[in-house]
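Q: What would this complex look like in 3D?
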Amino acid sequence: MSTPLVKLEGINFYYNRGKPSEVHALKDINLEIERGGYAAFFGPSGCGKTTLTYLIGGIETENADEGHILINGRDLRGLSKKELAVYRQIGVGIIFQQFNLLPSLTVLDNVALPMAFLGINVDRRRKEAMKLLDRFAMTKYAERFPSELSGGQQQRVSIARALANNPPLIIADEPLGNLDSENANRALEFLKELNEKDGRTIIMVTHESWSLRDARTIFYLKDGELIKKEQPEKKKEAQKKLSEHLYHNLFPEVTPERLMARSLSYMLMRGFSGDEIKRFEMFLAKRLSGEIDTPTFIDFLDSPYKEGGVGLWKQRATAIAKTAEDIVEKRKTVEDVYTDLQKDPETPLYEEVSKMRSWLLEDYKGILSDIQIVRFDEAVEDRFRNIISPENFRQVLELSRSDFGVGLAPGTVRTISEKLETILTGKNLQVFH
Amino acid sequence: MEAQKKKILLIDDNEIVRLMFSNVFWLHGLDDKYELNTVGTTDEAFVFIDNTSTRPDIIFTGLVMPFTKDGKKETSAEAGFSLLRRIKGDQATQSIRVVIFSGYNEEEYRAQAMSLGAEMYLQKGENMPQDLIQIIRSFDNS
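A: Here is my prediction, written as structure tokens for the whole assembly.
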């Protein structure tokens, strides 16, 4: 086993220790991040995730009260102020939510600045900075000032700056907070590239669950505690196998087209009644098997319900027909379509799921915490994709929070599950009698 | 056959340069392959060089540094040159590769260092941490 790049042992951190205003911000944190890993610290604001990254980034390090912050086996807490200063320059690149670009320097000089701390002369600095800007397609803005750039552009500059001294570790602190969905998606792509192509280790701090899609290890934090570690890549793989298995075993008599139609129908037809979805599913299956062509399909979707159609707006009908086309032409799988939907900046999957959540919970009087919401969304998504059964879905919702369930009361769970099954199957299931 | 770690010695009177070197080795995981020591004076360097068990394979050294000559302290390029002369003039140490890592870029310094047997003459402001890593790795293949 090689030494992990980051290893925290028994970290405790207090603000105002010993005073009445004392806050125990981090409680006995233990974790490891391997070299070349992509980890996310996930949790609501105030959960301690930013404090934690500041410790790893060498910023709050001197104030840690207990424990060890081992970077490639060496404890940051044992370093002198000067050593820490050098570590901050070449060990870690931080991408801040507010970008933190210096307004009085040009884009080029902002990126070149960290190299100045290492005594690199100005010509070499600018040459290197230009190379970095080129990587993010920002060279034409080199002589501009940060205030002249859009949020997305400023962030690309900020990523370039974080790479200036070639640090092995990149910390992105809520990197998507100030971006629209398209730029947020791009930022995630950049982080993924830095991880996969450069082999840099990434730590992303976030409270948005959809931004976790590329992270290979997710650390869930709450009230200063590390409450859960998850490795979704393994989970995704398992899910994929499981879902293939389920599809195959649940519906052995059904054709693949029919299966795909079934699994996609709800996704594409959110908010419609069971009957409408059933009808849509039938048309979609016909289209997928080549029984009908695209214009006919659009026509069906577009016609009013009472005339035998689905009653969609023309635009929506065309968009759905396009998706069906992609499936037929490119032989896309259900998983591919879900992946696309997840990346779709217009209506990404996470938005669908969160809309679904508010609908399912509209009669629920309590308030869910962020962690509960994540679990809830996961369960809805898994149920959607038919990865879990209605039974499993109810279990997850009922399971206590300490067991990583949602912790809802049995009555509430019953109502929610019935509601969800109604739309998924198009009929009222009498599962509880 | 297990390869022995290559020994590298950095001589520089500037603490930040020494820290930068040791940080590069530590953070980029070069510690597994190389053993780096850093010292601030040529006098300290010879403690490592003269002892066969600590004798470095590669030396990175500044040129203009404080040193003691005939009992008097002075700061000049002579610090680096006399180090080179002594290493290259002794059969036991002449195979050590010496890389000059200097803030000065005067042509006469460069010429003299090379004629005294230096491997390379690197200018500090021209070399990013990643360049240093590359140079160190390039010695593995030659």
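A: To summarize the key features: The helical segments of chain B are 15-27, 42-50, 78-88, 107-115, 129-138. Residues 24 and 131 of chain B are 11 Å apart (CA to CA).
Q: Very helpful, thank you.
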